[in-house]
Amino acid sequence: MGRNPIETIMGAVVLLVAGVFLAFAYSTADLKQVEGYQLTAAFAKAGGLKAGSDVRISGIKIGTVSSQRLDGTTYQAIVLLTISPEVRLPVDTVASIASDGLLGGSYLKLEPGTARDMLQDGAKLTKVRNYQSLEDLVGQIIFLATQDGPPPPPPGAHTGTPPNGPAGSPQ
User: Fold this and answer.
1) What is the pLDDT of residues 12-58, one digit of tens each?
2) Alpha carbon of 157 to those of 33, 149, 154, 163, 169: distances in Å?
């Protein structure tokens, strides 16, 4: 069974184009670990955040999540961040876990405060907003929608209307 040289050349071209595409995707994806200073934050729920997730301010990547662990005493998720050295954050910066849409991954969102003092290497972010998943929100809505109204007053209790009915109503 002989091979047609055109098929071999086309196969090589396809492999070459795939290689160029992979090299382009790797160089533009910004997958490398950010070098810089370390910060920590404690959350009640890590909410899908994992090592390598982005740390962003106003949608711009300024760092990465280096690692996460469980605090054995408080049972909180301790997240270690690496922040780019060009970005200095005020001590009153707020950290929260956000989602990249319904099907996207999670990232750590930072909202810088207005304090003059800046966070130093190894500092802890003290202002955090805990993660609330879509499932939690839907569960709360369902719970609120299925709650019964207030219970009826017991017989003989004063309800604010005269015993003969509201004023001006026919009897």
Assistant:
1) 999 999 999 888 877 776 566 668 999 999 998 887 888 989 999 99
2) 68, 18, 6, 11, 21
| H or E stretch covering 75 | none
**One-letter amino acid of 100:** D
CA atoms of 105 and 50, how far apart (whole Å)? 9
| Cβ neighbour number for residue 168 with a 10 Å cutoff | 5
Task: Say which DSSP state 119 is in.
Answer: P
Residues 134, 106 contacting (CB under 8 angstroms): no
Distance CA 136, CA 120 (A): 35
pLDDT digits (tens, 9 = 90+) for 25-38: 777 765 666 689 99
The predicted model scores a pTM of: 0.63
Provide the mean pLDDT of the chain.
Answer: 84
Letter for the amino acid at 27? S
Structure tokens given for 8:
């071999």
